[in-house]
Amino acid sequence: MSAVSDFPDWGDPHSPANSYRLSQGYITDTFPQTSVPNMVTAVLADYRGYDTMFETVVIFTAGIAIIGILRRYGPKDKVIPEQKLYKKEPDLIVETTCRLMIPIIQLFALYVVAHGHHSPGGGFQGGVIFGASFILLALARDLQAAQKWVPESRILKLAGTGIFIYAGFGFLCLLLGSNFLDYAILHKVMGVTPIEARSHSMLGVEIGVAFTVTAIMFSIYSNLASNGYMKEGL
Amino acid sequence: MIEQSPALILIPPFLVAILVALVGFRYQKVCFPLTVLSLAGSVVACVVTLMRVIEGGTIRYFIAGWAPPFGIEFRIDGLNALVAVTVSSVGLLAAIYSKNRVPAENPDKVSQYYTLFLLLITGLLGMVITGDAFNLYVMLEVAALTSYALIAMGPKRATLAAYKYVIMGTIGASFYLLGVGYLYIKTGSLNMFDIHEVLKANDLFGSPAVLVAFIMITVGVWIKMAFFPLHAWLPNSYAYAPTTSSAILGPLVTKVMIYVMIRLTLTVFGVEYTFIQLEWSNIVVWMSVLAILAGSISALAQTDLRKMLAFLIIAEVGYMVGGVWLADETGMIGAIYHIIADAFMTLCVFLFAGILFAKTGKRDLSAMDGQFKKMPLTLVGFLVGAFSLIGIPPTAGFFSKWYLIQGGINSGHYEYVIALLISSLINAVLFFRMIEIAYFGVKPAEGHDHNHSSDHDSGRSEASASMLIPLLITAAILLLIGIFNKDLVAIITDFVSPFNIASGAR
Amino acid sequence: MELFEAISTKINYWVYIVIMMIGLFAMISKNNLIKKLIGMSIFQTAIILFYVSIGVKEGATIPILYHDQVHAAHGDHGEADTSHGEHGAVESHEADIHINPDDFTNPLVHVLMLTAIVVGVSTLGVGLAITQKLHREFGSIEEHEILEIIKSGK
After folding, report:
1. B140 to chain C: nearest residue by CA?
2. Nearest to B186 by CA among B165, B164, B205
3. Which of A125, A147, B39, B266 makes a 20 to 30 Å CA pair with B423?
């Protein structure tokens, strides 16, 4: 605690953390080097893209781990008596509201993903919003209804594809002779300048992240809510 | 492709992990071969990298092509490369071993299990080769989350142990993260080498924030490695986890955390700060003495084989922490050598414990009863591991202890030397007791279990090849490390000597 | 007065320590497994607060370039109407933009905290899953009750 008095004042623009060449370099060089106005996105997906890749892996791991811990398969596990399976009566107000809300939520999620270069947002945020739309569906109807849209096998496919998109970008760079995740080399494939190639690749990996986050968010919810049976919701 | 070898260490297990999750969901059969293949690829990349390091010195690999401190770099020197080779080969051996055990213990979840297994190896390798303090945290969490799950997939007791591990592990990782934050607030950098440069250039070593950062990082890492007063989560987690899980977690997780501690003390804070300015050496060495004694004595009290081994791990952690904090070059060499040797010998005995559990279904020492006749080859593998843990030449354990003891004498920490010797004696007692049971049996031969009724009394029934081969390879590696200890020490010395750790009496 | 100044200029850091201690206390002393997880969440949130506080600068704004700055950069090359659609010669305008680092908060800490948030959520998820499995196996989420069951039910 004595360390706090040694800290620089809060909000001081000249504290070491803010005045060191690292932070300043990010602020001044991001746009010239990557043509992305949102520095957070640029640092996230490019300078520290390796971190972010494994951040996505952390999410993926959590999803797989929860399936591994909780999921119960097979007919022998059907111990819930049928009458305890709570069947929700369709409620007019809830139903209609959801019908109106869910498309808008999903559209907004896509906007957040795609516009991450220019405004706060990106793959994680968009993915969470998209996943939330499915959770809303599951809450309003029941888990089965939402599972019609995203059954378990599709969840795994979506999540895996997301990371494959991310790692694929990285691996493509490696195959083209550059370092892992060095997007600049991709200009050979995309037909744009190296700097623009960075910008576009970032969009690509953000979409990958969004895939994974969407799938895993719903997977975590459905496993936790149904105690691993994937039959009955909350 | 050669210059990409650092990246290729990580990519095979990582990509295949996801592939296994995707494909293995439908086709369980492909999981095992894919896992083994990817880990073999990783081992090859590690060895190639090690060769390059030996020839050309430190390798720096800029991910995404950004020079640090802007981007993240892999910075691989003698220490990293050796530990990476160890981690990947232990992973490979444990993966071969897992062939029959995983379907037996988690029949529904083979693909998830292998995905988590590969991601654990990915996380550990990532921790080993990275040169960025924050990236280390991310990798730490990848490894931690997977190990929580790998433990929790075990039977009843394992779940509670996993819960404790979640709480303790999160506290440890959060402390580490806080420490990195304190360093960042003072230096403005996240790259380990860059942090050190800034600390030196601005002469920040006297600053209390840096001191707190050091304390937080050290305590965080200690929690993660189960250093004695902070070890509560370890024994139950390793004892009750599925056998493959404990065969992979036991050897690797604690060892990699010790590597992290060495990396942080040597590279980030520097020898001068850690050992001379702080004057902590004495206290920490005494703590490690306590850890060694507590671990060994608790092990003596156990009847459950794997729990006993788990307590031995705590004692071994004490060896290594003590060896590092002796502040002596020989001690440091011994500690690094011991990381490698200990990873393999722990693997050896845990593999044996797994085989025994698979064969007899019993957890305690009585399972050893008369096994010498039934599976002599398996027992030979186990003997090498046990001798190594005791420290009988020419196994690896002897030489690492030799260096550690020499380091202790050089720096005048005789209490550490005595603790080491006592612990070796206790190990001898433990393992000779087991050997005795295995050879002579605890009771007359007719009184054995009903699940063995089909076996003949003297009939040999070795463990299946997929379990036996990794055990024997591990034993062979232990002997090889022991016999070629000079070459290994040469690599380690090349790494350690530039740091000018005080050697000789002070 | 000195004390007051020491606190007020670094209020965020003090607050973070208080929150962190609350979280740590809950994690260690609570008996209910869910409450422990809540404590864990609080603990991690405190760390996030700490990191974000590092990046704050007085009078600075979010680290996203203003649109007119972007347009100015493009405009110098005769592409006044594009901000991202065109892929023209953008690489040569380093010298044209004048970005004052003091105008923007530190972007790095935000990136780091995005990672930490994700890690926190994942850990919480896994923790909840383990708790649920415990409840399924022991029928309780109170630590002492579970321990009793283990002791007696051997």
Report:
1. C119
2. B205
3. B266
Contact between residue C43 and residue C27 where contact means Cβ atoms under 8 Å apart? yes
Residue with tokens 């719903």: A218
**Model pLDDT for residues A117-155, shown as the tens digit of each residue:** 777 777 788 888 988 888 888 887 777 777 777 777 788
Q: Is C75 on the interface with B (CB under 8 A)?
A: no
Q: Please give the residue of chain B at the shortest CA–CA distance from A169.
A: B64
B181 min Cα distance to partner chain C (Å): 7
What CATH code would you report for C2-63+104-152? 1.10.287.3510
Q: How high is the mean pLDDT of chain A? A: 75
Nearest one of B385, B228, B426, B217 to B317, comparing CA atoms: B228
The Cα of C130 is separated from the nearest Cα of chain B by a number of Å equal to 6
Residue B477 scores a pLDDT above 60: yes
Q: Given an 8 Å threshold on Cβ–Cβ distance, is A17 in contact with B149?
A: no
Complex ipTM = 0.83
CB-side neighbour CA atoms (13 Å) of A65:
35
Chain B contact probe: residue of A6, A29, A66 with most B CBs at under 10 A = A6
For residue A69, the chain C residues in CB contact (below 8 A) are 126, 129-130, 133
- CB contact under 8 Å between C126 and A69, yes or no, is yes
Domain borders along chain C are 2-63+104-152, 65-102
pLDDT score, position B446: 44
Over the stretch A16-37, which tens digit does the pLDDT of each residue have?
Answer: 555 565 666 666 666 666 667 7
Inter-CA distances, C48 with B327, C16, C110, C116, C122, Å = 35, 9, 9, 7, 15
Cis status of the peptide bond prior to C101, with omega within 30 of 0:
no
Partner chains of A (3+ C-beta pairs under 8 Å) = B, C
Q: Are A180 and B45 in contact (CB under 8 A)?
A: no
Mutate to test the interface with C, among B165, B177, B303 (most CBs of C within 10 A): B177
Structure-token pair, residue A54: 């494994």
Element (H, E) at A185: none
Pinpoint the alpha helices (H) of chain A.
16-19, 21-34, 39-42, 49-70, 92-114, 123-140, 143-149, 152-175, 187-190, 194-225
Mean pLDDT, range B480-492, rounded to an integer: 80
**B458: which DSSP letter?**
S
Q: Which of A143-147, B135-139, B456-460, C98-102 is predicted least confidently?
A: B456-460
Q: Using CB atoms within 10 A of its CB, is residue B65 exposed (0-12), middle (13-18) or buried (19+)?
A: middle
Contact A227, C136 (CB under 8 A): yes
Residue B149 CA: distances (Å) to CA of B152, B154, B314, B481: 5, 9, 22, 32
CB contact under 8 A, B64 and A180: yes
Q: C touches which chains (3+ CB pairs under 8 A)?
A: A, B
Q: Do A43 and C53 touch (CB under 8 A)?
A: no
Task: Give the C-alpha separation, B154 to B147, whole Å.
Answer: 12
